[in-house]
Amino acid sequence: MEKKKKKKKQIPFRINLLFFAVFILFSILILRLGVVQIVKGEDYKRKVERTEDIVVNTPVPRGKMFDRTGKVIVDNTPKNAITYTQYKGVKREKMLKVAERLAKIIDKDTSKITERDMKDYWILKNPERAKKKLTKAEMSDEKLEEKDLYKLQLERITEKELKELTKEDLKVLAVYREFISGYALTPQIVKNENVTPEEFALVSENLEVLPGVDTTTDWDRHYIYGDTLKTVLGNVSSSDEGLPMDQLDHFLSRGYNRNDRVGKSYIELQYEEVLHGQKTKVKNITKGNDVLEAETLSAGQRGKDLVLTIDMDLQLAVEKIIEEELLIAKRQSNTQLLDRAFVVLMDPHTGEILTMAGKQYTKNEKTGQMEMRDFALGNITTSYNVGSAVKGATVLTGFKTGAIKPKQVFNDTPMKINTLIKKSYSNLGPLNDIDALKRSSNVYMFHIAIKIGEGRYQYGRPLPINTKAFDIIRDSFSEFGLGVRTGIDLPNETPGLKGPDTLPGFLLDISIGQYDTYTTMQLAQYVSTIANGGYRVQPHIVKEIREPMIENNELGPVVETIGPTILNHVDLEQEWIDRVQEGFRKVMQEAGGTAARNFKGKPYNPAGKTGTAEAFYDGPERAKFKEPPEVMNLSLVAYAPHDNPEVAMAVLIPWAYQARSGHTANLTIGERVLSTYFDLKKQRLEQGESAGNTVQAEQTANEGN
């Protein structure tokens, strides 16, 4: 009985202990709730109610390009587009369901899907089967991170398993891969090529069941004149390409998105920051994963417009002349190597490029047919031996260095250095500096080079020279624009090539343009320097930057005018430049001049210099030859009128023919081009339109308003 009584007494004690413990726990809980509600309640409330502001930039159409008379050259063509905006926190499973719905409405190209895309999609569609690709040991191995396990899963997917994906699956995948390639809250193009009106309408009607999907208007770059100047105007990346990888950091640091379109080459690239425009800035107010409100911070504005220095009427006319004369020259020449020709027209006082034309006759790899292609870019990216066109710089270098004096006479007879014969095309007899230019004497230029090199010529004997003469002549030539970059506002300009050797014979060759190579643009800058009295003007292809106008094809207010830039002034006495200019005038206007047959009696009174260079072929067909064949390059530099120059011209025809005699397409092209320039000017004046000044007139009108 006593044992039973003791046991009963122990029970209340345990219950009391349990109650006490419960009391303590409840006290702690009440105390904790009090701290949460009273002490930190406001903080937690703010966290729950906290929203996040995320600013997103939306791209706008690029700026247009106009020619100097106000004609649109490059425009934007609107087109329907379907986009997807990935909201924060959206799971991939939900995105996949949206992609499945959208794939049933639109047709999506599947050709860009990679094997990796297919494997990723297979794992997403078959999560349980994907797990079985891993062993228990691998899943429990702490050394293997999640990415390592995923890599193992990818590697173990078989071709048979990939073949399980149907055509419908691939369509879904093609849409889904566009979904996941974008950034959170940034619209990503899903389809903008060949979006049919039916697709656009169906997507618009089903937006409620397609969260994140939207219909909008995209744009495409439209080059109004087709291939004309296309190599110079450049290209723009597609939405698929986005930012070029080699310039990714550069663009990202300037607020670009990875899938933004940017200029890839030449004018589109050079003036990217101007053409790109000001993006629309939208502030998305988010709470958790939901967007509560979208507020436009600043309306976007399409890119600023460029007014080019190019006159498209003149450009088109010059291109037609090149095409016609190039085909005629090919029939007349004894070589199939002739495949290109170049022409640059430039204002010698301002550096404005009026025409930058180049054509290449080549095979279309797709059709197998020969065709004319735009090669305007070749005016700055390819260089050639140009021959006697450089002799004006040689004579002026002779004056500058004191090697010759005005009116100095040399006897033009063949020269012999050891066994090497150097001569002109004929024995021209005694000539002064002016007549040496008029009749294109090689021997006169040789004497200048020898004197610059401190050499003493003796017939049939070696010719010792000071090799510093190479640098002296090249440095002087560079002051006129030969052998250096002209500074044109386009990337990838070549300075040309300098011959590597310093033998005496090569020094003589430099003096007649048959050793170093030059571009057509360099020739235009060089002859402009002579035409304007010694000022090397930087050529430029953009004339103005203007604000965009809402109305189609109208010019807005001027933001910036690109004026003349003088790169250097050649230190010349007036008498020296006068004598070279007179020699150039006689070349074209006086009997015996090397271009008089084509230009004598022309009402625009031209001046200039012809060029024929012995060279070696280094074109696209060179692999067919064991040794590069000898060819003749033709060139022509000119300006007009000779006493008040308003236009400078350079013509260059590489690999024109292979024999010692051939066609004179350089003169024919030059004659037709200059005549076309002045005919067009006359026509516009008769119509009451000042050639090339339409844009200026509009600018004045805008300022007046």
Automatic annotation (TrEMBL):
Biological or metabolic pathway of the protein: Cell wall biogenesis; peptidoglycan biosynthesis
InterPro entries per UniProt: Beta-lactam/transpept (IPR050515), Beta-lactam/transpept-like (IPR012338), PBP_dimer (IPR005311), PBP_dimer_sf (IPR036138), PCN-bd_Tpept (IPR001460)
Catalytic activity: Preferential cleavage: (Ac)2-L-Lys-D-Ala-|-D-Ala. Also transpeptidation of peptidyl-alanyl moieties that are N-acyl substituents of D-alanine
Membrane topology, as annotated: Single-pass membrane protein
Protein keywords: Cell membrane, Cell shape, Cell wall biogenesis/degradation, Membrane, Peptidoglycan synthesis, Transmembrane, Transmembrane helix
Top-level taxon of the source organism: Bacteria
GO biological process: cell wall organization; peptidoglycan biosynthetic process; regulation of cell shape
Annotated Gene Ontology cellular component terms: plasma membrane
Subcellular location: Cell membrane; Membrane
Single GO MF annotation: serine-type D-Ala-D-Ala carboxypeptidase activity
Enzyme class label: hydrolase
The enzyme's E.C. designation: 3.4.16.4
All residue ranges annotated as the Penicillin-binding protein transpeptidase domain in the record: 342-666
Residue intervals of the Penicillin-binding protein dimerisation domain: 58-284
Family per record: Belongs to the transpeptidase family.
Protein name: serine-type D-Ala-D-Ala carboxypeptidase
